[in-house]
């Protein structure tokens, strides 16, 4: 199960597992984001390489327009995935 939605404070809340089966939902949602945004991963349990690809695609699009994604409340496992993939240098990441 994966959910992605805007929170009360405008942050994008992600929960569950962002894997290949859920990428279409995430990509559709993130395509509507047109300015700098914060992704809250407090309830995200897992992210696959396909999920990373969706984030990278979104980040590239936003950076071209002078914006970007910030990711907060990242658990240790997902933080390791970002470090090992080199994505920690592409995104502003704040551990949870």
Molecular structure report:
The chain has 96 residues and is α/β, with parallel strands linked by helices. The chain contains three helices and five strands, in the order E-E-H-E-H-E-H-E. Strands 1-2-3-4-5 form a five-stranded mixed beta sheet, with helices on one face. Helix 1 (23-31) runs parallel beside helix 2 (49-64). The protein is globular.
Concise synopsis of the structure shown:
The protein is 36% helix and 34% strand. The protein is of the alpha/beta class and 96 residues long.
Number of helices: 3
Q: Distance between termini?
A: 21 Å
State the CATH superfamily name: STAS domain
Helix content: 25-40%
Number of strands: 5
The appropriate CATH architecture is 2-Layer Sandwich
Count of individual domains: 1
Q: Mean pLDDT score, rounded?
A: 96
Largest sheet: 5 strands, mixed
- Beta-strand residue percentage: 25-35%
Shape type: globular
The string of secondary-structure elements, in order, is EEHEHEHE
Helical/strand content category = alpha/beta
Radius of gyration: 12 Å
Q: Can you tell me the residue ranges where pLDDT is under 50 for at least 5 consecutive residues?
A: none
CATH fold assignment: Transcription Regulator spoIIAA
Name of the CATH class: Alpha Beta
Which strand order spans the largest sheet, edge to edge or round the barrel? 1-2-3-4-5
Name a few traits of the molecule.
alpha/beta; 5-stranded mixed beta sheet; Transcription Regulator spoIIAA; 36% helix; 96 residues
Topology (SSEs and partners):
Layout: E1 2-6, E2 12-18, H1 23-31, E3 37-47, H2 49-64, E4 69-74, H3 76-85, E5 92-95
Parallel strand pairs: 2-3, 3-4, 4-5
Antiparallel strand pairs: 1-2
